[in-house]
Design brief:
It is a single chain. By secondary structure, this protein is an all-alpha fold. It contains 12 helices and no strands. It has helices at 4-14, 17-27, 32-40, 64-76, 82-94, 126-138, 144-158, 165-177, 181-198, 212-215, 229-240, 258-278. Helix 4 (64-76) packs parallel to helix 6, helix 6 (126-138) crosses helix 7 and helix 6 runs parallel beside helix 8 (165-177). The protein is globular. The N and C termini lie close together (11 Å).
């Protein structure tokens, strides 16, 4: 079993206040307001989020990836704020590409420290749009951006061809929450071959691999039906055993700066524990 006290000490030593507050809320009975306040520290005047909230992009300017993380954290910690979500949607609508939805990396990343894969673009991103919509739809947010972006995502899913793992994360986050459940199940069936193409079933595989828990982290995840129970159990065992000597978890993609590595490790530690909690793998 993971050691929650050791994880808490790890976050106290190296984690952002955001992840310390998330841990407190999820595992120590903490209040929602400190999580909300920590998230809002990353909000910009336009209603979107930046300031390095997504550790791979250190620009202060608003980025879709940072907005996605802000909304997801507020949802995860049950610290939701409808006004925050509405203002974020207003910003997304104002910055939307011609097709609708959201881009991957906004131009304001230029000149700031960022991951090598953070390349600016102008067009629609299934990665950003699908994941942001997943949270907003789950919370029942009504906004013109949500409606227009959903239509674009449906069109992209209908024409899905050779997607990568991150595009599939966007697809599945959207399908988790979209109201038309019958259409979502049908879309999952079409996406299944692509998921099986990129998923790594060996929990000991090294490198930047994508295991079943990335696509189906919760017992009620729409993609959980694609994986045998013993496969899920094996990956949960591996995740539980992934706590490092310092108390935290780590990630399998490149670390490119000490700050990025520390921020991601804190984030991944809380998310790993949350996945284990939701799968009843933590001590009572």
């Amino acid at each position: 079993m993971p050691d929650l006290d050791h994880a808490e000490q790890f976050l106290a030593a190296t984690g952002r206040i955001l992840d310390r507050r998330r841990f407190e809320r999820l595992f120590r009975g903490g209040d929602a307001e400190p999580v909300r306040a920590a998230v809002l520290a990353y909000r910009n005047a336009d209603g979107g989020f930046g300031q390095g909230l997504e550790p791979d992009g250190r620009t202060p300017g608003t980025q879709p990836a940072a907005t996605e993380q802000a909304l997801r954290i507020l949802d995860q910690a049950d610290a939701w704020d409808d006004d925050v979500a509405t203002r974020a949607c207003d910003q997304l609508q104002a910055a939307a590409p011609e097709e609708g939805g959201a881009i991957f990396v906004a131009a304001n990343a230029e000149g700031w420290p960022r991951a090598p894969w953070w390349q600016t673009q102008e067009g629609f991103s299934l990665i950003s749009t699908g994941q942001i919509l997943g949270t907003l739809l789950r919370r029942g947010v009504r906004h013109p951006w949500v409606d227009a972006a959903s239509e674009v995502v449906w069109r992209r899913i209908d024409a899905l061809a050779d997607p990568g793992a991150y595009e599939l994360y966007g697809v599945l986050r959207f399908l988790e929450a979209v109201p038309d459940r019958e259409r979502a199940v049908q879309a999952l069936e079409r996406a299944e071959p692509a998921i099986r193409e990129v998923v790594t079933l060996d929990p000991e595989a090294t490198g930047e691999v994508h295991g079943p828990l990335g696509f189906a982290p919760q017992p009620d995840s729409i993609a959980r039906r694609l994986f045998d129970a013993d496969i899920i159990a094996t990956h949960l065992d591996h995740l539980a055993a992934g706590q490092q000597e310092d108390g935290g978890w780590t990630f399998n993609f490149p670390a490119w700066s000490p700050a990025q590595e520390a921020d991601w490790r804190g984030s991944v530690t809380v998310d790993s524990l949350d996945t284990l909690r939701r799968n009843e793998r933590l001590p009572d």
